[in-house]
Amino acid sequence: MNMKERLLKALKGEEVDKVPVCTVTQSAIVELMDLTGAAWPEAHTDAQKMADLAVASYEVCGLEGVRAPYCLTVLAEAMGCEVNMGTKNRQPSVTDHPYPKGVDNLAMPENLLSVGRIPAVLETMKLIREKVGDEVPIIAGMEGPVTLASDLASVKKFMKWSIKAPEDFNTILDFACDACIEYANALFDAGADVISVPDPVASPDLMSPDTFDKQLKPFLQKFADGVKGPMILHICGDVSPILEMMADCHFPSISIEEKVKDLKGAKAKVAGKVTICGNVSSPFVLLAGDAATVKAAATKALEDGVDVLAPGCGIAPDTPVANLKAMVEARNEYYA
User: Fold this and answer.
1) Could you tell me where the beta strands, DSSP code E, fall in the chain?
2) What are the two backbone dihedrals, phi and then psi, of residue 94, each rounded to the nearest 5 degrees?
3) What is the pLDDT of residue 104?
4) pLDDT tens digits, residue range 53-84?
5) I need a surface site. Which of 24, 110, 155, 252 has the fewest CB within 10 A?
6) Run means of pLDDT, 10 residues per run, the chain, 336 residues
7) Cα gap 22→188, rounded to integer Å
8) Which residues of 292-301 are buried (b: 16+ CB within 10 A; e: fewer)?
9) What is the pairing mode between strands 138-141 and 93-96?
10) Three-state SS for 118?
11) Closest CA to 306 of 8, 18, 63, 27
12) How is the chain split into domains, by residue range?
């Protein structure tokens, strides 16, 4: 079973020879930037550097997949948000929003797929495929519709509309959803095998479980139903209160952080609906721990039945290569 077959089967809950080990969230680290000469912020816009940095996590660390790009602002920027491109160890972030006053003037960019960094990301998918061949999975990352909608309006306005202006709230979510569907399908056309969809603004830290169930879930379902390939839904924080709702969003797999303390219980709650990726702590284990700490956390996740062994959230840029290698070694030792 090659790496691509293993990951695709694992995401569907089918039998595999061993649990895949990869990252479905942000994957770039400074050590790999130095090794490849492909550093942020240039690697956010230059397709070749983006591809070189992504492939290094597979070639150097042994992760069983190649994941790009490295932020949640590509589609937001193309849709009219202003973006600060960050630094070598800080991701891009949205700094201004095109629709903070309302939804009357919503306008989808003409030729969306040719705007901003989207062409570079699509080219990166092709460059990665040329480099790693057909047996290594390519995981594309993109912001989810909830986060995109909040970027378009601003998080403050988006949350206010959810209570005081539900029509505007639904309108901008629908608008964001259409853009997400178009971009996701283009990523598959460009060569992605799986799309990872972090949607942090859907977190219970920001939106109530009731809002998730009644107002957000229908749009996540619409997004998933409109896309031609397998996707992983990642929502930050302790998603225990919305775990079963996430499982109803029509994604084959979900990604969870270590803040979901009971992985075994989480598996039982969503059994038969979705598989689970995670949940080795990015800040407390992969960044701050040593190889022994990483192996202990990874082994615990495997024992608790995780379907894809992965960091619980985006990897911090200062994470050591040695700790990512240790996560792979833990999986290998578990099956030895």
Assistant:
1) 66-68, 82-84, 93-96, 138-141, 194-198, 231-234, 253-255, 275-280, 308-311
2) -75, 130
3) 95
4) 999 999 999 999 999 999 999 999 999 999 99
5) 110
6) 98 98 97 98 98 98 98 98 98 98 95 98 98 98 98 97 96 98 98 98 97 98 98 97 98 97 96 97 98 98 98 97 98 97
7) 19
8) ebbbebbbbb
9) unpaired
10) helix
11) 18
12) 3-334
Residue pointed to by tokens 């608790």? 304
**Displacement of CA 303 from its chain's centroid (Å):** 24
**Would you mind telling me the total number of residues written for the chain in this entry?**
336
Whole-Å CA distances, 96 to 19, 76, 154, 286: 41, 10, 8, 32
Tokens of 314: 């985006």
> Which CATH entry fits the domain spanning 3-334: 3.50.50.60, 1.25.40.10, 3.40.190.10, 3.20.20.210?
3.20.20.210
At 39, list the tokens: 């550093």
pTM listed for this prediction: 0.97
In a 13 Å sphere around the CA of 36, the CA atoms on its Cβ side amount to 25
- Give the pLDDT confidence of 124-175 residue by residue, as tens digits: 999 999 999 999 999 999 999 999 999 999 999 999 999 999 999 999 999 9
- Residues 20/3, Cβ–Cβ less than 8 Å: yes
